[in-house]
Design goal:
There is one protein chain. The protein has about 170 residues and is an alpha+beta fold. About 50% of the residues lie in helices and about 15% in strands. The chain contains 5 helices and 6 strands. It has helices at about 1-10, 20-30, 40-60, 120-135, 145-170; strands spanning about 10-15, 80-85, 90-95, 100-105, 110-115, 135. The chain has a 3-stranded mixed beta sheet with strand order 1-2-6, sandwiched between helices. The protein has a 3-stranded antiparallel beta sheet with strand order 3-4-5, covered by helices on one side. α2 packs parallel to α5 (about 145-170) and α3 packs antiparallel against α5. The longest helix has 28 residues, at about 145-170. It is globular and about 55 Å long.
Length: about 170
């Protein structure tokens, strides 16, 4: 239901090249610590992550959000994706509604802090607009940059899978 809700909200998203790092580092840690011992599970998680990256790439190509593995057509212009080469993720969500603005910040993931303070909302929104202005839009247009960006994400996941499997063989 969360995915369905996300797919219906138009969004402008700012992604750094490090967008997958936390997830990949957690997978490596749980393998190294022995919490994940099953090679098939490691393969499954990595393959699903790559499929998710490919799904987001398709959404970026179309500029539309849609639910993965469905034939549902998204709303036109519902997904704008920007790549910033300097920005490091802080997982900020800005919800700009007619009557109020909300800012959600991750805190000790998966927990978050929500603020409805108008000054904080305006400051965060201004920051986001500055950041997207200094970023490269990779949805719809800019196919070469988009292909490189998503190829690097897939490569990062595949490299981590190889490293994890090497750790798994050693352990």
């Amino acid at each position: 239901q969360l995915v369905l809700g996300y797919s219906h909200l138009p969004s402008k998203e700012l992604w750094p090249a490090t967008v997958l790092d936390n997830t990949l580092n957690q997978l490596q840690y749980y393998t190294w610590s022995g919490e994940i011992k099953n090679r098939q599970l490691i393969d499954l998680i990595t393959e699903e992550l790559i499929l998710l990256v490919e799904h987001f790439e398709q959404m970026a190509i179309l500029g539309q959000k849609f639910v993965m593995n469905t034939h549902l057509k998204g709303r036109p212009n519902s997904f704008s994706l920007y790549h910033n080469e300097i920005y490091h993720t802080n997982n900020t969500i800005i919800l700009d509604q007619k009557d109020a603005g909300h800012v959600f910040l991750t805190h000790d993931s998966p927990n978050y802090i929500r603020s409805q303070d108008p000054a904080f909302f305006q400051h965060t929104k201004s920051w986001f607009l500055r950041m997207t202005g200094r970023s490269t839009q990779i949805s719809v247009d800019n196919a070469r940059h988009r292909r490189r960006f998503f190829a690097a994400l897939k490569n990062k996941a595949q490299t981590m899978q190889t490293n994890i499997l090497a750790i798994h063989r050693m352990g």
